[in-house]
């Protein structure tokens, strides 16, 4: 396994072309997809033909430093989901998005906070990142709580994208949280 980052309980690695089934399973859980698609699964062919090729291309684009990373428990190696640390498609490399999508079995165990905290550390100490942001729906209190645990600051409200208007709570829009390198250092 080509480890990108380790925490006390997690190992993050780059996805490979053989990982489509892991992503398909994750995206087929209605609870996992609740605030993304209203619970609809991502079609397996979309994962294989669109999503996974984009993930792999991202490693080339950003020299393996940024992208979407598979998360596994160090004890037993179970796949628990993924974390993301990457810029907007044409955005500056010193301003990156932090995100995560975890299997239900991994919820409530502190993995999202643990993995995100380690990624913030890597971003600010090794990758030359100036600012990290994260966004979610206003009604996604679980993700918002994690952003607040990371001491990210609520920076803005954002409109709901048109392809997400069918999701419960979409009328409340979304939120964007941010943390700068300087704010992170002061923690």
From TrEMBL:
Superkingdom per UniProt: Bacteria
One of the Pfam families matching this protein, by short name: Acetyltransf_3
Record-annotated N-acetyltransferase domain positions: 10-182
Chain ranges passing through the membrane: none
Gene3D superfamilies: 3.40.630.30
InterPro entries linked: Acyl_CoA_acyltransferase, GNAT_dom, N-acetyltransferase
Name the record gives this protein: GNAT family N-acetyltransferase
Organism lineage: Bacteria, Bacillati, Actinomycetota, Actinomycetes, Kitasatosporales
């Amino acid at each position: 396994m080509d480890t990108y980052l380790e925490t006390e309980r997690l190992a993050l690695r780059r996805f490979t072309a053989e990982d489509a089934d892991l992503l398909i399973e994750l995206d087929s859980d209605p609870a996992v997809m609740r605030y993304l698609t209203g619970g609809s699964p991502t079609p397996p062919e979309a994962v294989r033909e669109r999503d996974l090729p984009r993930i792999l291309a991202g490693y080339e684009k950003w020299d393996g430093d940024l992208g979407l990373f598979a998360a596994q428990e160090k004890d037993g190696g179970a796949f628990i989901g993924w974390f993301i640390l990457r810029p907007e498609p044409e955005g500056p490399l010193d301003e990156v998005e932090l995100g995560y999508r975890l299997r239900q079995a991994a919820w409530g165990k502190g993995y999202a906070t643990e993995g995100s905290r380690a990624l913030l550390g890597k971003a600010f100490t090794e990758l030359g990142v100036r600012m990290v942001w994260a966004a979610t729906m206003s009604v996604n209190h679980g993700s918002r709580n994690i952003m607040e645990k990371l001491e990210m600051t609520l920076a803005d409200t954002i409109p709901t994208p048109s392809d997400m208007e069918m999701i419960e709570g979409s009328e409340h829009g979304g939120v964007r949280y941010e943390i700068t390198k300087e704010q992170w250092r002061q923690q």
